[in-house]
Structures are given as C-alpha cells and as structure tokens.
Design a protein that fits this description.
By secondary structure, the chain is of the alpha+beta class. The chain has an eight-stranded antiparallel β-sheet with strand order 13-12-9-10-11-14-19-17. The protein has a five-stranded parallel β-sheet with strand order 3-2-1-4-5. Strands 7-6-8 form a three-stranded antiparallel β-sheet, covered by helices on one side. α2 links the parallel β2 and β3. The longest helix is centred in the middle third of the chain and has 19 residues. This is Biotin carboxylase N-terminal domain-containing protein. Keywords: ATP-binding, Biotin, Ligase, Nucleotide-binding.
Length: 448
C-alpha cells in the first residue's frame, strides 16, 4: 500500500479521501488556495501546502505548483478527486513521468473517453448501444442541419469535449438548431478550447442512469451496480439513488454487462463511471459518456455494497487485489444522496456567503460528507456544493423516510441553501413513486 498521498482537490472530496487514507495509515498532503485556508480538509491533512490565489488556474489547476508540492513533501502518489485535473490526460501522464503514482485510469483511457464523439464510436465498436447521432463533428451549421434531418428532431447539440452537464442544448427544429449550434460551439471554444459539436437524438422523457465500474489489477473490469441520477437542474445532478427504481432485473443485467464491455474496450483501470440514458417507453438504454474518475455520488454505491471506493482506488494504484470478491457481489438495501448546495431552492442560483450555523443530522443509516463547517466561507470561486447527505435504508421506502428526517435535521445558515427543495421533492408523488425522469424538476417548478 502507498505510504503517502497528495490530494489534488478541495472541499468535501478532499476531506473524504483524506479520511480513508488516514484509516489506512497513509500520510496525507492537502493543497489549497488562499480562499480555502480555513476549510476542514486543510486542517485534517498531515501536511498542507498553499498553491496560490483562489483562481483555479493559479491553484487547483496549476500543475507545476501541485507537482512541486508533491516533491517537496515527499508524496508518493496523487489522487485528483473529481473536477479540476481529474480527467486531464496530460496531467496524468506528467504525474507518472515525474515518478509519482496516479490514482486513476491511465492517460490513454482518459484521452479516449474525453471526446464524446470518439467515445461514442469506440463504444459502438465494442457493442455498447449508442443513441443515433453523428460519428464525426458537425463542422458547420449546414452539417448540423443535415445530420438533424437524418436523425429527426428534437436533437441534442453537445460540445464534444464537454462534461458535467455543460455545453449542451436542445433544438426542436431547424431554426432553433441554427441558434443553438452557434451558441454551443462558442461556449465549447471558450470553456474547453475545442469547438467540436456532436448532434444526437434527444429523448424528451428519459432517465439518466450510470454504472460504477472498477478496473482491477488483474485486468478484469467489474460493475458495482447502477445509480439513478435523473433529478437534475440545468443537466446537473441534484439527487442520486441505487438501485434504480426503473430497471427490471433483466435490463439491469444488460446495462451492467454493457458497462463492463465499455471498460474493457479501453483497458480500464481504477474507478470510472459509464453514464447512460434510459428510455422507459422503449425499454432501451444508450451510452452517454464515461467519466474517468471518482463520481460525486459514489457514496450511494458504497452504502449498498459495503465497499470503500477510495480504498479500492488506492489498492489498485498500489497493485493490490480488491477487498471484496468480484464474483460474489451483493446489494443490501437502498441508498439515496442529495447534494447540499449553496444556492436558492427555487431558481437554483448560487448564493455564497459566510456560514453562521452548521448542524449535521445523524442517526442509523445517515452519512454526511461535508466540505465546510460553521465559521467557514463559501466563496463564488468554486462549485456551490457544500456537502452530500446520504441515507441507507432497508428498502426505498425506508430510505425515503430516513432522508426526510435527515433533511429536516440539517441546519445551515448564512449562505443560501437548497435543503427546502429536497423537502419539497420528498413530498412529490412522482418522486415518491419512483416513476420519474430528467424533467421532474422542470415540472415541479412549472406547477408553482
């Protein structure tokens, strides 16, 4: 096992990685920006190194500063968490070139999955279902219109290099496509340095379901169940649960097998997630993208499998076998996670500020992964996520009941907070039934 680990991230995920590393006896190094100097992850690491100002380009995306911190502290490995540099193939390669261990998949797998069009084509060749769409970038609006004519409206216009729900728009007709093509292309050039655009069939009533995979040291790829991620705002997740209420046992088996094929197609190692769209009307799923990192919502998988995914990541990076038997995986109960963000619960606009009160819920089956505590400041420099509230129950009804109590018992004052939205959702008949899709938040807001 590794002896020392630098965590190249911040907030709740840095704190969560540090917690597991400490349990395993691994010395931890935190890196932080000036804005984050007082956050819990900085104080809880064995050593902490200031990277620079709040601007991520000068801190959490500053590869030179991170590598210097690793060398000066004697860190043996780097865990990137999620976001920032976690899916940067060049950084992963540079880490290895500097004699350090990268806790994640290899640069080739990251690079192969980083472009949505390339990933779609690879998956299709591996026998993984993909939605009707372009196999090459739509280089002009004319090419986009021609592709949409073949696919049929409505279509999704996507930045090929995008991720995290960014760089996507729906076009219901040719006029809308002309507008959205230019907008998405411009956004992609600014945000990702790559203006390539993908045109794909849009499903108005669809569910977003993903599969957790682990590529083991012996070459096997295993699937650790699925996660339902259909409660979203602006194509970004708010709630995740497992098992998905939408899947029959047969369809679940098909989905997990397809995810394993996806991992095998790129010789995947370490933790990753195969994201899919599921069309309940046709009872069919399609590959969406692969996230070559640990996901925000990984705790729900940990809850039902009784596995620490960060520990498994560290073991794989160390060349060790997993703690579990891949041939005897079992799911126990039901788990749900809600993302506690510093944003208003109606329009979901960011609302940073100083935290004057912070009281976390507790009880059987309740877990809180928090990046903040009372006295800290949520700045506008980073994502609005403050904490993840996770519950594990005997079944979905039990998990919902525990989550209602936990949401009611979570007190945050100072910044705006979306906890009232979750209280509203937990009383929504559509969500309670389990028969919901990615349009649920829009319908809730339209009914107000």
């Amino acid at each position: 096992m590794l002896n020392s680990l630098l965590v190249a991230n911040r907030g709740e995920i840095a704190r969560r990685i540090i917690r597991t590393a400490r349990r395993l006896g691994i010395r931890t190094v935190a890196v932080y920006s000036e804005a984050d100097a007082g956050l819990p992850f900085v104080l809880e690491a064995d050593e902490a190194v200031l990277l620079g100002p709040a601007n991520p380009a000068q801190s959490y995306r500053n590869t030179e500063a991170i590598l210097t911190a690793a060398k000066t502290t004697g860190a043996e490995a780097i865990h990137p968490g999620y976001g920032f540099l976690s899916e940067n193939a060049a950084f992963a390669a540079t880490v290895a070139d500097n004699g350090l261990i990268w806790v994640g998949p290899g640069p080739d797998a990251i690079d192969a999955m980083g472009d949505k069009i390339n990933a779609r084509n690879l998956m299709a060749a591996a026998g993984v279902p993909v939605a009707p769409g372009t196999t090459d970038p739509a280089r002009t609006v004319g090419e986009a219109l021609e592709a949409a004519g073949e696919i049929g409206y409505p279509v999704m216009v996507k930045a090929a290099a995008g991720g995290g729900g960014m760089g996507m728009a729906v076009a219901n007709d040719a006029d809308a496509l002309r507008t959205e093509y230019d907008r998405v292309r411009g956004f992609a050039e600014r945000m990702f340095g790559d203006g390539s655009v993908l045109i794909e069939r849009y499903f108005p009533r669809v569910r977003h379901i993903e599969v957790q995979i682990l590529g083991l040291c012996d070459g096997r790829v295993v699937a650790l169940g699925e996660r339902e991620c259909s409660v979203q705002r602006r194509n970004q997740k708010l709630v995740e649960e497992t098992p998905s209420p939408a899947l029959s046992p047969g369809k679940r088996a098909e989905l997990l097998a397809a995810a394993v094929r996806a991992g095998e197609a790129v010789d995947y190692r370490n933790a990753g997630t195969v994201e899919c769209l599921f069309d309940p009307a046709g009872d069919e799923f399609f590959f969406l993208e692969m996230n070559t990192r640990l996901q925000v919502e990984h705790p729900v998988t940990e809850a039902v499998f009784g596995i620490d995914l960060v520990e498994e990541q560290l073991r794989i990076a160390s060349g060790l076998a997993p703690t579990f038997d891949p041939d005897a995986l079992t799911v126990t109960g039901h788990a749900i996670e809600v993302r506690v963000n510093a944003e208003d619960p109606k329009r979901f606009l960011p609302g940073p500020g100083a935290i004057t009160a912070w009281v976390e819920p507790s009880g059987d089956g309740v877990r809180v992964d928090a990046g903040y505590s009372a006295g800290n400041v949520v700045t506008p420099s980073y994502d609005s996520l403050m904490a993840k509230l996770v519950v594990h129950g005997a079944d979905r009804a039990d998990a919902l009941e525990r989550l209602r109590a936990a949401v009611a018992g979570f007190e945050v004052a100072g910044p705006k907070v979306n906890l009232p939205f979750f209280a509203e959702l937990l009383g929504n008949p559509e969500f309670i039934s389990g028969d919901y899709d990615t349009g649920i938040v829009g319908r809730m807001r339209a009914s107000k």
